[in-house]
Amino acid sequence: MERYYKVYFYSRSSPHELFVETITVRVGDDIFEEANKLKRTGYYIGSIFEFLLPSIENCRACQEEQPNQLAHMEPGGCLYSPE
Ligand SMILES: [Zn+2]
């Protein structure tokens, strides 16, 4: 099973500069090792958040055949939108 993470990298010289990468981690992978591969010179890893891809496979409400649309909009749900 794959897990998905957003990694926030911050600039050492300017606290307002950052970039974000999405990484995919398989069982047994070291998340910091994967994140380090994406690190640019002068940046450090600020924070790492796991997120669930919106899909029917990940949607608990779909699996439970919930008629309530809101239940499909929770994190990991097929209608989930992070914004
Ligand atoms: Zn659903």
Describe the structure.
This protein is of the alpha+beta class and 83 residues long. The chain has helices at residues 31-38, 60-63, and strands at residues 2-11, 18-26, 43-51. The protein has a 3-stranded antiparallel sheet with strand order 2-1-3, covered by helices on one side. Strand 1 and strand 2 (18-26) form a beta hairpin. The mean pLDDT is 87. The chain binds zinc ion.
Helix-strand layout with pairing:
Layout: E1 2-11, E2 18-26, H1 31-38, E3 43-51, H2 60-63
Antiparallel strand pairs: 1-2, 1-3
Bound molecules: zinc ion (ZN).
Zinc ion (ZN) binds at residues 56, 59, 61-62, 72, 77-78.
Order of helices and strands: EEHEH
Number of strands: 3
Are there runs of 5+ residues with pLDDT below 50, and where? none
Question: Are any ligands bound, and if so which?
Answer: zinc ion
Shape: elongated
Whole-number average pLDDT? 87
Profile the largest sheet: 3 strands, antiparallel
Share of helix, binned: 10-25%
> Approximately how much beta-strand content do the residues carry?
25-35%
Strand order of the largest sheet: 2-1-3
Rg from alpha-carbon coordinates:
16 Å
By DSSP (H or I, 4+ residues per run), the number of helices equals: 2
Judged by helices, strands and strand pairing, the structural class is alpha+beta
Query: Roughly how many Å apart are the termini?
Result: 25 Å
Summarize the structure.
With 83 residues, this protein is α+β, with helices and mostly antiparallel strands. It contains two helices and three strands; from the N terminus they run E-E-H-E-H. The radius of gyration is 16 Å and the shape is elongated.
